[in-house]
Amino acid sequence: MPASISKTFPALRVSGLSKRFDGAAAPVWSDVSFDIPHGQRVAIIGGNGAGKSTLLRCCMRLIDADSGIVYFGDQSVTGLRGNALSKARSRVGFIFQKHNLVSRLSVLTNVLHGGMAWARTPRMWFQGVAASEHRDYALHCLDQVKLGHLSKRQAGELSGGQSQRVAIARALMQKPSMIFADEPAASLDPQAGEDVMQVFSDLARDESLTLVFVTHHLEHALRYADRVLGLQDSRLSLDVPSNSLSAQQLRGMYE
Ligand SMILES: Nc1ncnc2c1ncn2[C@@H]1O[C@H](COP(=O)(O)OP(=O)(O)OP(=O)(O)O)[C@@H](O)[C@H]1O
User: Fold this and answer.
1) Which residue is closest in CA terms to ligand 1's atom 14?
2) Which PROSITE patterns does this chain map to (predicted)?
3) Average pLDDT over every residue of 229-236
């Protein structure tokens, strides 16, 4: 199992991050810095094209920033490659708008996939899927997203909201300390979106998970985050506790 992120340091530290895409006249954002303590739920907001997804992707190291450093706990993940990067990422769960479940496989098998990063051969993979302790843990993860009763269902038969919750259970198989979610509710109907965000919120509370999510839904930022980061005019223009966010600040973010 992956080592957990050191609790002496913030769960995530972003220090002086800047990013400009090739050929773009201006940077997406510059000199972005913030620390996120363990167990905090943080929403990233901003207008279209403000660079929310780019910031999350740089934190995940799916793309590289031009300058600055990203730390998971006390470890700088900037510049890591290959196995070292995979090992650092194994402590973090990623959730995207598209859940990418394998539709012809059962819900349980999809969740089991999340814990199989160590399986280097098909034989190891099959042994892992068959191991009762892994199956028990996968069922526990499904219970955490309130879908234990659907473990035998084919993934392709699920609704969008159920699929996203299975994707969260799949991420939980890694026993992550931190989850990054890029618009996890964007393609869902309002009720399914609320259910997904409630699952995240309960997990953060019950499992002390650090949660960083990008959202277009301001009500999700206010209801499910402890803190709101806002991107505007190529910089981090807002960093406030969600319960102190004023209507004026919010309006200003989208002017
Ligand atoms: N791979 C890329 N190559 C070039 N430009 C990119 C790339 N990805 C994003 N951009 C540009 O960077 C800017 C920020 O994009 P990003 O998707 O991060 O914004 P966002 O705030 O998440 O937007 P939205 O709310 O519309 O999803 C946009 O101008 C976008 O066109």
Assistant:
1) 51
2) ABC_TRANSPORTER_1 (PS00211), ABC_TRANSPORTER_2 (PS50893)
3) 95
